Amino acid sequence: MLKSHRYTIGFICWMTFITLLSLLTFPEDDGPKMDIPNLDKAVHFTFYFVAALLGCMSVRERTSGRLTLKKALLIISISIILYGIIIEVLQSTYTTQRTGDFYDVVANSIGAFTGAYIIKRLFSGKRQLKWKI
Questions:
Q1: What percent of the chain has pLDDT over 70?
Q2: pLDDT higher for 125 or 131?
Q3: What pTM was estimated for this model as a whole?
Q4: N or C: which end of the chain has fewer CB within 10 A?
């Protein structure tokens, strides 16, 4: 039973993980700090890249591929980008130690579009996987 819902469960868990990391405040560690330029943007890109991959696969899983690939990519991309915008607004308005950042939204969006592009490439072209299950 759960095997047939693995992408949906993974997507829900991943989005819950993103939400918790985005809205909870963690105590500062007094240990050594790494100063890697734009690491935060790379993390945002990665979170939303994985979200797009899992989201598209979840839609495929839930609809058995009856929803066209193009529609699935559009729905997931727009939904994840709107979700990222909402998270940034919530960080600005409801948390005390976090702030929303326009460039985080940009990194989120690029990650979502890249994930959708990878799914498109996997399910179209000469060596395509089958979208319909």
A1: 92
A2: 131
A3: 0.89
A4: N
3-state SS record for the chain? CHHHHHHHHHHHHHHHHHHHHHHCCCCCCCCCCCCCCCHHHHHHHHHHHHHHHHHHHHHHHHHCCCCCHHHHHHHHHHHHHHHHHHHHHHHHHHCCCCCCCHHHHHHHHHHHHHHHHHHHHHCCCCCCCCCCC
Residue 1 has pLDDT above 60, yes or no: no
Specify the pLDDT at position 131.
Answer: 84
Query: Measuring CA to CA, how many Å separate 95 from each of 23, 63, 82, 91?
Result: 7, 37, 19, 5
> Per the structure block, which two tokens stand in for 114?
């890249």
> Which residue type is seen at 53?
L
Q: How far apart are CA 64 and CA 57, in angstroms?
A: 10
Sequence-distant (≥ 6) Cβ neighbours of residue 17 within 8 angstroms: none
